[in-house]
Amino acid sequence: MTQTIATTPFDDQKPGTSGLRKKVKRFQQTNYAQNFLQAIFNSLEGFAGSALVIGGDGRFYNREVIQSAIKMAAANGFGRVLVGKGGILSTPAASHVIRKHSAFGGIILSASHNPGGPDGDFGIKYNIGNGGPAPEKITEAIFRQTSSLTSYRIADAADIDLDRIGTSDIGDMQVEVIDPVADYAELMQQLFDFDAIRALLRSGFRIVFDAMHAVTGPYAKEILERQLGAAAGSVRNFVPEPDFGGHHPDPNLVHAKALYDLMMSADAPDFGAASDGDGDRNLIIGKGIFVTPSDSLALLAANAHLAPGYAKGLAGIARSMPTSAAADRVAEKLGIGMFETPTGWKFFGNLLDAGKATICGEESAGTGSDHVREKDGLWAVLLWLNILARRGESVQEIVTGHWSEYGRNYYSRHDYEEVDIEAAEALVGSLRKRLPELPGQSIGDLTIAAADDFSYLDPVDGSRSDHQGIRILFDGGSRLVFRLSGTGTAGATIRLYVERYEPDTTRHGIETQDALADLIGAAEKIAGIVKHTGRAAPTVIT
Ligand code: G16
């Protein structure tokens, strides 16, 4: 009953920052998804008879690929598959299910915050037994497999009924359709002071959570409204749609503008939050104040001890290199380790497994901890609510208090999306060539202290990752970072990260883009973005 289907390789199946992400239309080509799945299985060893977790964010094409993945898992020798009801598992929930059930690994179908629907994006990612994204060693092996594939194996079986919780068999493999929310909700109860949050919400503290028609809807409805008693209607856009209701499920100030506008209005609730397509990102907005992801990481780390799961304190903090240094100051004060990794959650896995870091975060709206091995949107929301409940202050008071204590890291990211790939590579190539001559040069009042191309040496397994972003460091600690995104599906996306540290509290009220204006001007002078790309302005500023 196992079929071996002949196929030919595709030359574009190199995993990016987070798995393989492409247009749905590309994934719909005959054998495209199956090839990649077979390449994953071919690159793994020793999984015969063990469990595999499969789930996705519910986007268009999710169900079809899930059926193939289940049948291919059976044909390749897995003993058991756990799949979320309706094919749904948020990325952090999938990570938890892998860990809790000691699965060999998991297949997560998502293109994260990218748009869905027939003209949108799709993605496949493999997570290892610790629940985290496969490290580069494995993604490189998968890529090698994709280039020489001649066939894939699939069980000749009927589709599994994904909408009914229960077990069935495909040959020797058992398929278990599980409640996607239950295990995750139980984990959150262990980490946070649900009584304190419940009391806060009962006291009239108003929250709004925008699930953006994506995967966190069922999780947020259950946890925030049913278990914690947030007012009915606090969770918005909570029904996951294959096309995310036609929206772009990216919780940033552009795509979650309605939430932002609400939070800046006179009658704003006390706390606003949103998550993305697959539930691993978060956006936090207080009444009248947006909290940058970099600040959020620092604040959560500084206050985590107020939640029962972190009462013992943190072992260390990790952040991706382009993320602001706000968390570094917290680590310094707490006297704990601070780790700077390349962009990509996969780089945190070793640090978390080794007990070197407890909390991790990225400028790209991701925060998480050692409770799973993915970033976790709802986890961040619950930790914020736990902190707010225990401190009894507003978001604004907590954020400005933090700046007074540690100084403020003004921070912004400018994205130039869908740029011609050659033009983007030329910009980076030219910068890379000029790195040695940059130190000592001055642009206006700014003097370049150092310039390099970031390399990471993993302190746990000694692996090295080069070319992870160009850093231009100025006297006084300001910084520019240039890198190309590894998650886009059309052309290239140039990311420019701008940061300035301001210790003086009397200068903490400046509008962010104004506070960074000299650095933004310097970025143009140094990199020639307009000349290279023909773009007069970024596509998205966050
Ligand atoms: C993924 C990765 C993150 C990374 C982000 C942006 O997030 O897991 O670690 O920061 O992409 O990456 P890039 O700058 O290369 O586009 P997600 O939420 O898209 O899975």
In short:
With 542 residues, this protein is an alpha/beta fold. The protein is built from 18 helices and 27 strands. Strands 2-6-5-3-4-9-8 form a seven-stranded mixed sheet, with helices on both faces. Strands 20-21-24-25-26-19-27 form a seven-stranded antiparallel sheet.
Considering the chains and any ligands shown, give keywords for the structure.
542 residues; alpha/beta; Alpha-D-Glucose-1,6-Bisphosphate, Chain A, domain 3; TATA-Binding Protein; 3 domains; seven-stranded mixed beta sheet; seven-stranded antiparallel beta sheet; 18 helices; 26% strand; binds 1,6-di-O-phosphono-alpha-D-glucopyranose
Mean pLDDT: 96
Q: State the helical fraction.
A: 25-40%
Query: What is the general shape?
Result: globular
Strand count, sense and barrel status of the largest sheet are: 7 strands, mixed
Radius of gyration: 23 Å
Oligomer: single chain
Low-confidence stretches: none
Secondary structure tally: strands: 27
- Kindly identify the CATH topology of the largest domain: Alpha-D-Glucose-1,6-Bisphosphate, Chain A, domain 3
- Give the spatial strand order of the biggest sheet: 2-6-5-3-4-9-8
CATH class of the largest domain: Alpha Beta
| Bound molecule kinds, no repeats | 1,6-di-O-phosphono-alpha-D-glucopyranose
Tell me the structural class.
Answer: alpha/beta
Q: How many DSSP helices?
A: 18
Measured between the Cα atoms of the first and last residue, the distance is 52 Å
Under the CATH scheme, which architecture of the largest domain would be assigned? 3-Layer(aba) Sandwich
Number of domains: 3
User: How much of the polypeptide forms β-strand, as a percent range?
Assistant: 25-35%
Find the CATH superfamily of the largest domain. Answer: Alpha-D-Glucose-1,6-Bisphosphate, subunit A, domain 3
